[in-house]
Design brief:
With 350 residues, the protein is an alpha+beta fold. 33% of the residues lie in helices and 24% in strands. The strands form four sheets. Strands 7-16-14-9-10-15 form a six-stranded mixed beta sheet, with helices on one face. Strands 1-5-4-3 form a four-stranded mixed beta sheet.
């Protein structure tokens, strides 16, 4: 099973009534908390020796080919062989033929052997054979296909999944929803289509927060998104939630907290900004009633970037997410803003 990162640990929050957070001072009940950063030779063969004729085998070993005079002038052995043959009555062989063979052997030994460097080259070509190692472009296209499949996957209501890391044969997915079952089904479908099992982290949220999944799906095709990180994903009540937000130069950002009751808090005034980065550290706490329940509750921080900010996100007091998030999405679409969003999850209290 590849469903990880708290799916089991979060079941307790599903079946118990979830408490309402209270942004304690220095964050008042109307000023929520913000999110923090969670914090891959072949040696040349010796020249072949010249073949030796049967007559040469009977003679004494010939000297090295480097001494031409010795190879061509050997009268005593030749005459000794003639005398023996005359005595036996056999016809005498033609000595000129053996001299020609010696000369041919000498010529062959002086010819350099042909190099065999082609063998290593053939081995190297075999390693790079496309049938064994697909081109990088194919691997990139495969990753893009899987991300596109994930973006368009029909997980049903209150379902959002995004790839947080992807490679040719591995992918990590973060999911937001009220139940684990849809993500188990998605894991099976993914494996059937692509041949390997994805690693999925499920973030269980409350029904009042489901509007987040619709909002994030509405911006899932954005060409750019901010990098939002939290220092931790479990924050004790009364402790700060802290993190960082990075974005392309020249972009504006809005940082929003959606609590377990489905209320939106604008955290822009709590950001410490630089031209392309912002950080935050904001104390946040549960109300007395929520703290008494003893349950950790889900909180989601959403960062949205745009050319000049989004008016619908600039709220001065907490408002229902069911009103604020659709309003932001409508403004982005109506003005055709180049925008993107990132959502991060943490649990408060417990």
């Amino acid at each position: 099973m590849a469903l990880i990162a708290g799916a089991g640990g979060y079941f307790s929050g599903l079946f118990e009534p979830t408490p309402r957070p209270d942004l304690a001072d220095p964050v008042s009940a109307e000023e929520p908390a913000a999110q923090a950063r969670d914090e891959p030779e072949l040696q040349e063969a010796e020249p072949a020796q010249a073949p030796v004729s049967a007559q040469e085998a009977a003679e004494e070993p010939a000297p090295q080919a480097s001494d031409e005079a010795e190879l061509l002038q050997q009268p005593e052995p030749a005459q000794a062989a003639v005398s023996a043959q005359e005595a036996s009555g056999e016809p005498s062989p033609d000595t000129s033929a053996s001299q020609e063979e010696l000369q041919a052997a000498k010529d062959r030994t002086q010819q350099p052997a042909e190099p065999e460097a082609a063998i290593p080259e053939e081995e190297e070509v075999a390693v790079l054979d496309p049938a064994r190692q697909p081109p990088a472009a194919e691997a990139i296209d495969g990753v893009a296909d899987r991300i596109s499949w994930l973006r368009n996957y029909p997980g049903g209501d209150c379902f959002y999944a995004i790839a947080t890391s992807a490679a040719d044969t591995a992918i990590e997915i973060e999911g937001f929803g009220t139940a684990v079952d849809p993500f188990m089904e998605m894991m099976t479908d993914f494996q059937s289509k692509f041949g390997f099992e994805p690693e999925i982290s499920v973030r269980l949220i409350e029904p009042a927060q489901c509007v987040i999944t619709d909002f994030m799906r509405g911006l899932s095709g954005a060409v750019e998104a901010p990098q939002l990180t939290l220092d931790r994903t479990s924050v004790p009540s009364g402790s700060p939630v802290s993190g960082a937000l990075e974005m392309p130069a020249g972009r504006s950002s809005n940082l929003l907290l959606i609590d377990h009751r489905g209320m939106v808090f604008n955290l822009d005034s709590r950001l410490i900004r630089t031209p392309d980065k912002a950080s935050f550290s904001i104390p946040i706490g549960l109300s007395a009633a929520d703290a008494a329940a003893g349950q950790a509750v889900p909180q989601v921080i959403v960062a949205v970037i745009s050319p000049d900010g989004i008016e619908a996100a600039e709220i001065s007091k907490p408002r229902p997410a069911a009103e604020v998030l659709p309003g932001i999405l409508s403004e982005i679409q109506a003005k055709r803003l180049v925008s993107g969003a990132t959502a991060k999850y943490f649990r408060l209290g417990g």
